[in-house]
Amino acid sequence: MPREGQFVDTLTVIGVGLIGGSLAGALKERGAVGCVVGCGRSTENLEAAAQRGLIDRYTTDPIAAVAEADLVLLATPVNALIQTLPTLAKHVRPDAIITDAGSVKCEVINAARTTLGEIFERFVPGHPIAGREKSGSQAAVTDLFRDHWVVLTPLEDTDPTALALVRKMWEQVGSRVRLMDPASHDEILGMTSHLPHAVAYALVAQLGDQQRNDEYASMTAGGFLDITRVASSDPAMWRDIFLHNGETTADLIREHRKVLERLETLIREGNAEGLQEWFESAKSLRSSLENAKEHQRSNPK
Amino acid sequence: MPREGQFVDTLTVIGVGLIGGSLAGALKERGAVGCVVGCGRSTENLEAAAQRGLIDRYTTDPIAAVAEADLVLLATPVNALIQTLPTLAKHVRPDAIITDAGSVKCEVINAARTTLGEIFERFVPGHPIAGREKSGSQAAVTDLFRDHWVVLTPLEDTDPTALALVRKMWEQVGSRVRLMDPASHDEILGMTSHLPHAVAYALVAQLGDQQRNDEYASMTAGGFLDITRVASSDPAMWRDIFLHNGETTADLIREHRKVLERLETLIREGNAEGLQEWFESAKSLRSSLENAKEHQRSNPK
Question: What are the structural domains of chain B?
Fold first, then answer.
C-alpha cells in the first residue's frame, strides 16, 4: 500500500532516458512514489540516474525489475518497448498496472493486445508531448512535463482504475492529460511532430550532400541551426517512430513533397502575388498557433 | 568630414525596418555617425524609429533622403531595393558610397550595374546574416549584428575605399565581415537560409490544409512551433528572396523533394537499418555544425 502522499508504492521504469528519468525524478522530488526501480541495458546510464537521485535502485534484468512493481512505465524507443511486452505478460504481478510513453500508439496497442492477454485491460497507453534534443538519463530534468500535454489513449476495455492512476501520475508532475483515440493521436502527432522531424533530418542530409561543409557550416546562422535542432534527437527513437507510424508518416511526407512542388512552381513562374499570398497566410496561421499556445500557458489548468 | 570617432558624417537608411533600424541604432549608440536620415513609405514606422532614437530625422521622399548622404544603405526587401536604384543614380552626391543589405546578391548586382552607371564602382553589395522573425523598426535591436557574419560581395571594379568604409561600418557594430563572390553567396544562403524558410512555410501551409486546426493547434509542442518560427518573418521580404534567387531556390526545393522521397522510400520499405544510418549521420553532421558555431562564438575576432 502506498503511504500518505504517494500515489503508488513501487514504480518500475523500463528505459531510464530523457522521458523515463525525468518522470522518475519528478515523482521522487514530490515524494509521490515509494520506490523507483530503473531498468535498462546500460549499467552506466542506470548508475548515473541513481547518482542523480532519479531512481532508487536498478537492474538490467527486466524480470527482476518488474517483479514487485505496482506500476510499470515503458519508456524505451517503440521497438524495444514492444519487445519487452512478452516479459511483462509473464512476470508482472497479477494486479500491476502498465503504461507507456511511446510516441506511436496504434502499433504499440496492437502488440500489447496480442501479447498481454488478460493484463491488457490494465495497460494504459500514453504519450507525453514533451522532449528535448538530448537523450539519456543525463538529459533528464524534473520539470520536463510541467504544462505539457500528455495524451492517454485508453481503449473500451481499459480498466477505469488503471486509467485514473496513470492520469494521477502525470498530473502530479504538472502535465495536462488529454484523452484521444489512438488513430487520431498517430495522425495528429504525425503532422505536428513526426513530419517536422523528417523535414529537419532531410535538411541536414541535404546540407551534407553539398560536400562543401566548411563553407556552408559557418553560414548556418540564418535559422538553419534552429530549424534542424530536432535532428540531434536520439536516432533509435526516431527510427522506431518512422517504422511504427510508417504509413501515416510516409503519406505525410508524400503530401509535403506536393506542397513543396506547389511552392517550387510559384517560384519558377515568378508568381509574386501567389508567393505573397502563401507567405501571408502561413504567417497568419502560425500567429494563431502561437497565440493558442500562449493562451494555454497563461491559463494553467 | 566626419568628426573624431565617426566613420561617416551623414548616413541615409532607406528602409528603416529590422535590419536598417538595428544598424542605424547601433551606429548612433556608438557615436559612429554624425546624422542618420531615415527613409521609407510609412511615416508611422519612421516616426517610431525617430522616437526610439534609431534615426535623427526622416522623410518619405527618397530624393530628399539621399541628397546629402555620404553613405546610403538600402535595407528594404529586394524588389523595392532594385526599384530605388534609378533614384540613386540621379540624385546621390557624386562622391557618395552606396551599400545594401539585400538577402540576394546576383540580381541586385545585375540591376545595380545596369542602373547606376559610373556610380556602380562605389556600390558595395552586402548582406548581414542576422535576423529575427519580427519586422519593422519596432523589432530593431542594437546588438542584432554582434558576432554575426556580414557577407560583402565586391566586384572587380568595386572601389577599395568604398569597400573599406562599408567594412568599417559593420565592424563597428560587432559583425565579422567575410568577402564572397555573389554566386557563392546566393547558393550558400539558398541552402542554409532560403530553403529552410521554404520548408517552414510549407509545413505551416500543410498544417493549414488539415482543416482541423483546433485539434492540431494544441498539439504543436513537439518542435512544430520552433521549426516553423521563421514562417512568421516578413512575407514581402521572403516573396522577393524567392523571386530574385528564383532558380537557385527552386532547384534546392526540387532537390529537397528528392531527399524526402528517399526518406519516404526507407519508411515504406520498413528499412530499419537505412533509417538508423540516416538519422545517425544527420545527428553527427548537425553536431559538427553546432560545434563549429560554438567555436566561432568562443573565439571572437
Answer: 8-179 (3.40.50.720), 185-298 (1.10.3660.10)
pLDDT above 80 for A186: yes
Give the count of beta carbons closer than 10 Å to the beta carbon of residue A27. 24
Q: How far is A279 from chain B (nearest CA, A)?
A: 5
Sheet arrangement for strand B97-100: B57-59, B33-39, B8-14, B71-74, B97-100, B123-124
Grid coordinates standing for B207?
A: 498544417
CB-based burial label for A273 (10 Å; 0-12, 13-18, 19+) = exposed
Closest listed residue to residue A215, CA positions, set B100, B289, B131: B289
Contacts of B299 (CB under 8 A, 6+ apart): none
Residue among A197, A207, A222 whose CB faces B129 most closely: A222
> Grid coordinates 501571408 are at which residue?
A280
CB contact under 8 A, B222 and A267: no
> With an 8 Å Cβ cutoff, are B296 and A255 in contact?
no
pLDDT tens figures, A23-66 = 999 999 999 999 999 999 999 999 999 999 999 999 999 999 99
CB-based contact, A238 to chain B, within 8 Å: yes
**Integer Cα distance of B187 and B202 in angstroms:** 20
A8 within 8 A of A34, measured Cβ to Cβ: yes
Tell if the CB–CB gap between B238 and A205 is shorter than 8 Å. Answer: no
Contact A140, A18 (CB under 8 A): yes
Is the pLDDT confidence value at B212 over 60? no
Is the confidence at residue B112, as pLDDT, over 60?
A: yes
Q: Which ipTM did the prediction report?
A: 0.89
Helix (H), strand (E), coil (C) string for B268-297: HHCCHHHHHHHHHHHHHHHHHHHHHHHHHH
Question: Which cell numbers hold the place of B175?
Answer: 559583425
